[in-house]
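Moderator note: this is an archived Q&A kept for reference. The question asked for a predicted structure of one protein chain; the sequence and the answer are reproduced below.
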Amino acid sequence: MSLNHDIQTNRLLDDTINDNFVDMAPPMSEKQVLVASERCLFCYDAPCITACPTGIDIPLFIRKINTGNAHGAAKEILSTNILGGSCARVCPTETLCEEVCVRNSAEGAPVDISGLQRYAVDHIDTELPYPFTRKAQTGKHVAIVGAGPAGLACAHRLACEGHQVTIYEAAAKPGGLNEYGIAQYKLVDDYTQKEIEFVLQIGGIEIKYQTALGKDVTLAQLRNDHDSVFIGIGMSNVNAMGIPGEDLPGVEDAVDYIAELRQAENMADLPVGRRVIVIGAGMTAIDIAVQSKKLGAEQVSIVYRRDINAMGASAHERELALQNGVNFVLNAQPHQILGDDKGITAMEFKRTSIDDNGKLVATDEVLSIPCDVVFKAIGQKYDSSPLGDDAPDLCKRRRIAVDDNFQSSLAGVYAGGDCIDGKDLVVEAVDHGNKAAAAIHLKLTQG
C-alpha cells in the first residue's frame, strides 16, 4: 500500500489486533451441539439438502451427531464436500441451507447447520483410518490448473478413482480464495493449509507451485502431456471505477490487501488508513471494511450507488459490518478522487435516484467524503490471457464457457469455480470440481 502522512502502522497494539481477529464464530460447546441437533426435524424431503450446492445430506449428518457419532457425521459431509470444514466457516449459510430450514417459520430461527457441520468435521477421529480409499491406479493422468476449492475438490475425486493428478498452482501456497481472499477472522489458525493436508492424504496428487498457466506452462502443453485438463484459476483482475484520481497513491484493490493481510506475520505492521472508503456492495466489501476497523482505522464507510436492499452482501454480513462500526453511505456513485502524488484527501460522489423508467441515474448533488485510503471492491473479472491462442474459443462470454458436464469447447478441457459463470461461492466451486471430476472419470474410463 502506498503511504502518506495519515497512513501508518501500529494504530493498535499487537495484542489488541490479535484479539480483534479471533474466530468470528467460535466452535460450539457440547451442550450447544446437543441443543442444536435436537432442533432438527430430520425432514424426509429436507429443503436444506436442495439448497446446499454440494447436496450434503444435512438431516443425516445431524442425526449422527445427535447420536454421538461425530466421526460418521464428518464422513457423511466430506464424502460430498471434501472442503466441508472451510465451507462451514465461510459459506453464507444464511442464504443457502439455513434460509430454507423449516424451523424458520416454526420458531423464527433455523437450525445452526453451519455450526453443527463445523463441529462434525472438527471432531473427525484422526486415530481411525483415513475415511477415503484410493482405487487401483488407472494409468490416466489429469492436469488441474489452480489449487483453489474447485481444483482441490476435482483432484480429490479423481484421486479416489485411481487417477494420477498434478495440480499446477501459480502461487507459493495452495488454497486459492480460502488462502488469499477470505477475511482473516473467518478462517483462523492456518485452517486452510490444515484442511488441504487432509485432502492430500488420499495420495496420487502432486502440486507444482509457482507454475502459472501462460507463463511457466501452456494449455497446449498440458493437453499434450495429460489425458485431461481441468481449469480452476478463478478471477485475477479487479474491475476499475473509471474515474479521475483512481491512480493516485492510497487507492487500493481490496482483494490484494486482504491477501497481504492473510499472509502477514504480524498484522500490526500493515499500513492502515485513518479514514477509509470502501467502494462495493458484496462480501469482499464487507470483509475489507470490517478488517480495516479491526486493524485500527478510525472511520470506515462502505459507499454504494444503490440502496441497501440491492447489496450483494447478505443481511448477516451487513449486520456484522454495522456491529464493527462501519458506516453505510447509499445512493452515491463514484465521481472523482481528490489528492496528489503524496496521497488522497477526499472522494466525491454524485447522489443517485431511480427515474420514471426504473433506471438508476446520477443527480447533480455532489457528496464529498474525506479519506486517505480508498479500497475498490467492485468485483473481479476473468483474465483470459493465460489461455493464449485458445482464449477466443474458450471464452464465449466474460468467462470460460462450459456445458452441463463442465466441459469446454476444447476436447478434454474442463473448467469450474469462479472462472466460469456462477455465484462465486466456495461451496459452489467445490460442486463444480465434484461434477467435473465425475465427467472426466467417465470420459477416461468409458471413452
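Archived answer notes: The first strand starts at residue 141 and ends at 145.
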